[in-house]
Amino acid sequence: MVKLWNFFKNNLLKIGISFLLVFIAWYPKLPSVHIAHTWVYIRLEDFSILLVVGIWFLQFILRRVKLPPKIWLTVPFYWGIGLISLVLSLIFIGPHLANFFPSVAALYYVRHIEYLILFFVAFSTIKSTKDVRDYVIILLVTVFGFSLYAFGQRFYLDAWVAFPHFFEKYPYCFPSFQTGNEEFAKGIPLCLPKDARITSTFAGHYDLAGYLVLVIPILVAVLLFVKKRLYQILGFIVTLISIMVLIFTASRISFVAYLLGLTATLVLIKRKKLIIPFYILSIVLLLIFSGSTAKRFMETFRFMSVVTNNQGQVVGQLPSSLQGKISNNIIENVPTQNLPEGSGYFGLPQLSAPQKTNQALVQSALSIEQARKLKLENGGVEISTVSGSFLVKKVLVYDISFTTRFQAEWPNAWNAFLRDPLFGSGFATITLAVDNNYLRILGETGLLGMVSFLSIFFVLALILKQALPAIKDKMSRAYLLGITGGLIGLFFNAVLIDIFESSKVAETLWILLGIGAGVIFLYKKDFDFKKPILKILTSHPFVIFYLLFISLAVFLKSVGNFFVADDFTWLKWAATTNLSDLPKFFINSQGFFYRPLDKVLMFFLYTLFSFAPQGYHLSMLLVHFLIGLGVYIIVQKLFGKKLFSFLGALIFLLLPSQAENVFWISTMSINISALFIIYMLIFWMNFRNKGSIINYITALVLAVLAFSAYEGAIVVLPLVILFDLFISKVKIYKLNAVLSYLPLAALTVAYPFIRIATQSLPPSGDYSYNLPHLIPNVVGNFIGYLGLMLVGEPSLPWYNFMRDTLKTETLYIAVALITILILVCLALFVYRNKLKGLFKNETAKWILFALLFSFVSLIPFLGLGNITERYSYLASVGFAILAIIVLSKILAFIKNNNYKLIFVAIIVFAVGGWYLYQNNLENANWSEAGRVTNRTLAYLRLYHDGNHPNSGFYFVNPPIKYGQAWIFPVGLPDGVWFIYRDPSISVNQLNSLVDGKAVPAKNADGSANFVFAFDQNRNIYELK
After folding, report:
1. So what's the pLDDT on residue 349?
2. Whether residue 367 has pLDDT greater than 90
3. Do 345 and 491 belong together in one domain?
4. Could you tell me if residue 959 is inside a domain?
5. In this structure, are 260 and 320 located in the same domain?
6. pTM beyond cutoff 0.70
7. Residue 330 lies in domain
């Protein structure tokens, strides 16, 4: 009895953890205690966990168990952030949300404590390598047990057919207890039909699949390390059936996650040769035992012909019997059928452009009278046609699971994050399923919650890396590398599934991680955290991630802004273009500027996103971020300091003067050209430093692409020479240097002739130069652009005052400038030795370089009669460099490092706060501009059916701007075209209401005219 008592006394926690490993996986989700306002129940496994944790806590009080040194702090950090988020939610956010219940929010928080505390309990049970072997055996038994149950669910109908008499006498199945809805969560046993998604003893097939993603790599790693033949055979059998069960779940994301986790494990244990055999085995099992899973993979994306309205929005699927029989992509009295509910799609390049048909051939789900009842106040009406022409379009359809995420779950979680980016909206403030665990964490606990959660895994990975060389026991090593691979798979699985919220997966995960941490501390006790963590967190990939995250956090709210101004012109070009037209853009400008590459890109964007602005804005944000990344690379090459590189890129990304280029789709030309120029300069520097011909050719190709995107690329050659003078320190008059410039020089010289040959639009109006005012324009505009880049829109009144002064006092100012120039030249002549010293003074050299970069980038625009934000885009790179130079010199005067950090923090918060404030104002302006255009076109769609050929649409003083955001300076006729797709409708602009009243109701041919005006809130109405 004494021995038995001592055994239980010394192994009570180990017995408890072993029991939980089996019980959590085997016991179905049967309810015990109901929680009001939710169908989540307190279950028997929760009471079991409470008992084991209670024993551990008692032993902790008695000092019989200890916490893992240092690393335990990461868990309370996460709990603390969660508690702050919960309190803020209960006080400030939750009361303003529908269906928010404080008790449910508190329960969700307690669940996260329940999950993670198992880590400490499991850690306390590891005293020798024998404990690891025991847990591996228990894990094998656990997986084998619920896998047999899964096989019973999968094949019991086949057994019924084979043994009908037995099942008539005993009509039982292997029931599934699911929690997918409120009724099932009550513990209703379900007999699964043949080819259903198998759940075994889990609450759903995704939970079971996620569990297997975690444990299969452990089983494989252990299998490859054991030596006894019997153990190898048993391990292989369990591994094989667990893979089959994973396939039975029909979870596509989990199958891919399992392959990734398995690959990582085989790489870590240095068995790369087995990757292909395991892949073949898995795919063969998939094809043999789960045709439904293979079918779901095939149907994830599929080609289909759909019926779209004038704006490209899908209204139905073309019946398969009629596909391929439609001429010119126009439906002629052809019925449609609904797409599978919830399906979304990507467009495909069309062989021919759809044309207008005069007949309303497909009836919409809404009548005109019903549509009129829809609310217009917030621009909420989609500009989808109620009746009108309908077109056939080839698309790549993705299924409902992706559509639900893209259109509902993910936006809801992101909106929850935006309510409080630091702490989120709190637990239980978003939908029960988000199907992206990272977005769920951001939405519920914010950025700090995400950082604190990931920090746990980060620290565990750090101690594993430091301890791994000292771990000699093969079983322990296999277990640790296996769970590492499983965790990698689980992290991928979390992209589409809330896998860390699944109780059976989460509880098992933290138990297994606690066991792994206990194994590590058997071999190594002391770890170095500060230097490795600092090195990783300040590494280039992490710094780039910070830039990306900040960019998304600042600008992602603009993604929903509607099209404005020139956007409709670009979209009409794309809508009336077919694939065979694309080469023609390079030889014919079609009465526009020579920007063929932009037209090609817009064609493909329209093919993908049609009349939905989100895709275009995301593309603009991606280009903006990539340019910011280019700025990061350039500053790194110049100064070699990550802090300066990060701040330089951040300044560029957040400058208020970038508003047009970020929020307005029509600035795509400038942005793409700037993208190619920045990376062309990077490759040019690499060419100068390494003499690499590949970098040289790449730079030339990027220069050609920049010219094909925007005429502002004419500054490419001067910028290259500028970089050679200041950075590469090349003697530009040497023969080799001159020869390297020849292709760029030839391109620069040829470009004007290319424009003429392609009949490009010549400069005129605001795009032309006035020679008598050239000098004051150049001086005034350059100063104006510097002010615009420094403070944004508030600098414009000062700029306008300065321009008015220059206009009236041009002669005196010109004389003053000439006098100053003469005095400067005399001073330089007297102190000519100082001129040589200018390039020896690093600060002066870099300031001059930054100013010249901005000036050269602005050369095409400085002579114009005005300034605008979008023209400063490329020049703002030079401004960002200038800001970093000034910051570096200030820091050089500060001796104390602590003072330096305080100063940088103050600058970042002050400047960053101002830039964020200005960006929010600008986005509000562009959002309002989009609301006006959306409401205008929606009004026209709802109140006019479009059956008015040859009619005239007259608009009285349509709004041009809201703040600095464009509305309808141009683009209104193209927007109207998108509504009706009828070129016979003329669009005219009137100067006053009096002119509108003079428009006849009907023309001589009997066609009708319509007159519209705008009220003081820019809302459209019709003049009767």
Report:
1. 55
2. no
3. no
4. yes
5. no
6. yes
7. 301-398
Does residue 223 sit in the same domain as residue 75? yes
- Give pLDDT, residue 6: 65
Kind and range of the H or E element at 317? strand 314-317
Q: Which residues neighbour 769 within 8 Å (Cβ) at sequence distance 6 or greater? A: 763, 777, 863, 864
> Is 43:30 a contact under the CB 8 Å cutoff?
yes
Q: Return d(Cα 837, Cα 859) in angstroms, integer.
A: 28
Angle, helices 437-467 vs 410-419, to 10°: value is 80
pLDDT tens per residue across span 651-664: 999 988 888 899 99
CB-based burial of residue 678 (10 Å sphere; 0-12 exposed, 13-18 middle, 19+ buried)?
buried
Checking if the pLDDT of 865 tops 80, the result is no
Q: Looking at residue 334, what is its pLDDT?
A: 38
Is the CB of residue 880 less than 8 Å from the CB of residue 633? Answer: no
At residue 788, the pLDDT reads 81
919 lies in some domain: no
Q: Where are the alpha helices (DSSP H) in 863-947?
A: 875-893, 897-943
Q: Which runs of E-coded beta strand occur in 509-637?
A: none
Q: Which residues contact 948 (CB under 8 A, 6 or more apart)?
A: 985, 1007, 1008, 1010
Domain count for the chain: 4
Higher pLDDT, 376 or 905: 905
339 φ, ψ (degrees, to nearest 5): -65, 155
Q: Which two tokens stand for residue 660?
A: 């047009």
Residue 905 belongs to a domain: no
Is the same domain home to 307 and 274? no
Together in a domain, 855 and 708: yes
Neighbours of 776 (CB within 10 A): 20
Using the predicted structure, report yes or no on whether residue 998 has a pLDDT greater than 70. Answer: yes
For residue 190, the cross-strand partners are: 176
Residues 423-432: what's their mean pLDDT?
87
Whether residue 478 sits in one domain with residue 491: yes
